[in-house]
Input
Amino acid sequence: MTTKTQAHDSPKILIVGGVAGGASAAARARRVNEHARIILFERDPYVSFANCGLPYFIGGEISDRAQLLVATPELFRDRFLIDARIRHEVIAIHRETKRVMVKNLDTGEQYGEDYDKLILSPGAAPIVPPIPGATAQGVFSLRNIGDMDRIIAGMVHAKEAVVVGAGYIGLEVAEQFVHRGLKVTVVELQDQVMPFFDREIAEPLHREIERNGIRLELGRGVAAIEETDGAATGVTLADGTRLPADLVLMSIGVRPNVGLAVDAGLTIGASGGIATDAYMRTSDPDIYAVGDAAEYTYGPTGEQMRVPLAGIANRTGRLAGEHAATGASRPAPAAWSTSVVRVFGYAAGIAGLSLGAARQAGFDARAVHIVSYHHASYYPGAAPIAVKLVYETGTGRVLGAQVVGAAGVDKRLDIIATLIHFKGTIEDLGALDLAYAPPFGSAKDPLHMAAFVAQNDLDGLAPLMQPDADLSAFQVVDVREAAELEELPLCDAPHAKHIRLDDLRDRLGELDPARPTVVSCRGGQRAYAAVRILAQHGFAEVYNLSGAAAMRDFALNRRSGAEPATHVDLPRPEHLVDEV
Output
């Protein structure tokens, strides 16, 4: 770490881009150095705005436009003595003379500005595929307030919308279009929404989306946007399917704006972002990079990668501003990709790695599924919630979690995010002393239950089988009541033998203790009890189907075309006296 500058030192700090990273850098630089000269260049008309709030203004949930404006040039000037120049674009960096070239986008004037330190926060641009009709009237992307205004204007006479891409922005805007009365179709190239979720976490969202009248077209790409007289009239998919649309939102991802850095000869990392060190310095120690265009240390793997999320942009922008203004700061934190999305009555999110991503990264990873309620089941308003906890075999280190449900999702994600930041294990998770009262949680929180089941798995008390496993070679025992089997059959296991849990000890003779056996119930608790019974009666190889029939249904049974009137819910949790 370099030596911190004295309070009377007055470096000239230029910041390229506002919004999250750049605005945070500017404000922090001023707070730690009253004498620094700080100039912020923003090419758009708004220097700092709540870009994550844009979908909700489109749908009317946020009604006051002024609430989207986090800070204005006047606020930066009057409160922070920062010269915020909107509609000014930095078009070149001359590192050898420590000078940038700036273009006033309103007048066309170009001029130079010297710097001692330079902070790049250029953000990212929406990806628009080079397909016919991509520039037609009625085709939009959403990055800034101007985009938002154009979408709102385009909605005035629109009746049918197609949203291309089923990530965060795509699903958020699709919901808002429904609230505005549009008929909506969501198209996604992958075979599920939120492609970085594991399948059984995405499937409840599929059903909730379709229940609310949105048509899903999954596993299909877009070939062209049809137009008449320059205006969009529909979308043609790669398989020839035509979707009528007079409004199209392209939301297939973002591309980092690294052109300025590339032209300046700065190092670009393997993930395509601007390479940075622990203090967000680029390959030029007088130039910093933050936000969607920068690379961060990715906590779960330790690799450098882009993480285009607002939280890490704000936190690292603050540190870069301090380091530029004083010569020292705390090192930048790792990014863990903690994120959450609301889709009508459900929320879903992830902290750390999914099971698929963990295994792809080389971890010997396992996972447990829990279906429960977000607070005590007997207290009014208890809502279903499902947790998938991913952990490392051997060490028990928690690698990540996904949560989906009608309430309490964000709370569990934040707990896991905190745990994995400190490299906690399933033992640590099971020992956490969490706040409890019936309106807020349960004496054994769903996360506690996930930890307990993971402990049983690693201890060999009840080894887990993943819900999407091929069960054809196993002896399968379903210990539910007969009525439950009719309501929710065990997917893709027609050979399963039905023996009620309470009858199991009396009917052991109907089973072959020499065969590998998988036990299932509705959510996993009764199956655990059955596993313990069988294991202690000579069954040598017995597994608990993780998440049981409930999660297997989500993992394997893609239900499409759900009627809007049909209520979609997570299965009811089980309540037994038995302790896990």
